[in-house]
Amino acid sequence: MQSLIACHDCDLIQRLPHVADAGAVQCTRCGAVLHHKKRNSIERTLALTMAGLVLFGLANSFPFLAFKLEAQVRQTTLLTGIQELHAGGMPELAVIVLMTTVLVPLAQLMCMLYILLPLKLNRIPAGLPRVFRFVHKLQPWSMMEVFMVGILVSVVKLAKMAKIVPGVALFSFLALIFVLAAMTASLDSHLIWEKWENKQ
User: Which domain covers residue 32, as residue numbers?
Assistant: First the structure.
């Protein structure tokens, strides 16, 4: 079945032909790339999603950073950092950090698992269009890399005052940022919609 697609450059509406593995389709008017099919998109994205869930669990279960000053050692986790922001009189900032670094990434991973696992088993999950659109709406709110930059700036400033010991959660959090980016890059949205359309 051929789908209609609008060119992002010249707005010409045309039919999207069947694309071979890792092939690309160009606009018949301006030559812009309309769609680039990604090889084994569902399998690779599903594997990255599951890896992301493991890393997310590690990032929220183990110490993020440890501050060592003489004989005193204080460990912090991602959630205790959010609690400190709230206790320090910054509840709005605490809510934003909670949403952008914990709730939104978790929702993205769970929604992608809900979509991709049944598709891998040749089934269509209930409410696929609604869940998939929800995932796209969440993407601008995932700002883990911004939080990571803030952590690195703080570490540089605090390094002169105390010894900073990175924890397992910090490395897991850093790896999770790259896994989420790879998950987004490997996802072929057209393939998801095509599978849903063929089952209707």
Answer: 1-37
Reported pTM: 0.78
Residues 33 and 49 in one domain: no
Tens-place pLDDT, residues 79-125: 887 888 888 888 898 898 888 888 999 999 999 999 999 999 989 99
Dihedral sign for Cα atoms in the order 171, 50, 48, 143: negative
| Rounded Cα distance, 114 and 146, in Å | 27
C-alpha 62/C-alpha 64 separation (Å) is 6
Tokens of 55: 């890393």
Alpha-helical runs (H) found in the chain: 41-59, 78-87, 91-98, 104-120, 128-138, 144-158, 168-186, 189-198
- Residues 53 and 88 both lie in one domain: yes
pLDDT in tens, 10-62: 877 877 666 655 567 777 778 777 766 777 889 999 999 999 999 999 998 88
- If one counts the domains in the chain, the total is 2
Shared-domain flag, residues 97 and 169: yes
